[in-house]
Every structure is written in structure tokens, then in C-alpha cells.
Write a structure and sequence with these properties.
0% of the residues lie in helices and 43% in strands. It has strands at residues 26-35, 40-47, 59-65, 71-74, 92-101, 104-113, 121-126. The strands form 2 sheets. The protein has a 4-stranded antiparallel sheet, with no helix packed on it. It has a 3-stranded antiparallel sheet with strand order 5-6-7, with no helix packed on it. The termini are far apart.
Length: 127
């Protein structure tokens, strides 16, 4: 069996170090990687600044790297929209795991919503 040989690269991407949309203000957490023929795509969770009540939402996004780990593209829109009022992903999608099945890409993700008795709640979704 072939063993992967990992090499630590350190910090590869921080939204604060790039010109990113307002919804991608900070964090690139819970990464998930897909290897393509000509680039590497890393999916991650991020969030904008808090609203006027100090509340956050989170979005899932991607960044593409060449094989020397230079950034070549950053998603302009979240890969998933927030859910409707009262749904499990009303306030965020986090994290995301993407697979290719046939010619389609499928995303498995957790969504979260705010609660009165606890700070938030999570559940699982599929798109």
C-alpha cells in the first residue's frame, strides 16, 4: 500500500490577507480538499463581520491553488445559500465535504441555527 508523504506548509490562506467579498471576512476553517488535474480546491467555512446585534452567520466557500500552493481563484459567492427562516441551516453552513459522483459534485454539510437555551444547534444536510 502506498503511503502519503505529508509536508507541513504552514498557513496557506487567510481571507484577511486577500481581497475577498464581505461575507468572507474571516476564518478559513474546517478545510476539505479536492485534487483536480490542474489545481487543488480547498473548501472551507468562513464568516462576515457580526451584525448590529453582535450575531454571526457562516458560509462555505473555496479557494483554488496551483501545485506550488499559490492562490489562483477565490469563490466570489458562497457555495451554499443560507437556509430559510426556521431551517437547520438558517444561520450557517459548516463544515462541507464535497465528493464527485459521475459528472456531479455533491456537498455534505452541517447547518446551524440559533437557539434560546444554547448558543447554536447543528444538523446534517446534503445538496
Amino acid at each position: 500500500m502506498n503511503q502519503l508523504k505529508w509536508q507541513k506548509k504552514g498557513l496557506l490562506f487567510n481571507p484577511k490577507n486577500h481581497k475577498t467579498p464581505k461575507w468572507m471576512n474571516e476564518f478559513a476553517q474546517a478545510p476539505h480538499v479536492l485534487h483536480f488535474d490542474s489545481f487543488i480546491r480547498v473548501y472551507f467555512s468562513c464568516r462576515p463581520k457580526p451584525d448590529t446585534n453582535g450575531q454571526y452567520v457562516s458560509y462555505s466557500a473555496f479557494v483554488d491553488f496551483d501545485f506550488d500552493f499559490n492562490v489562483i481563484e477565490i469563490s466570489e459567492e458562497p457555495i451554499l445559500k443560507l437556509g430559510n427562516l426556521g431551517t437547520f441551516d438558517e444561520f450557517g453552513t459548516y463544515p462541507v465535504s464535497v465528493i464527485k459522483k459521475g459528472g456531479k459534485y455533491l456537498a455534505y454539510y452541517a447547518g446551524w441555527t440559533r437557539c434560546e437555551s444554547v448558543p447554536f444547534n447543528t444538523a446534517i444536510g446534503f445538496k
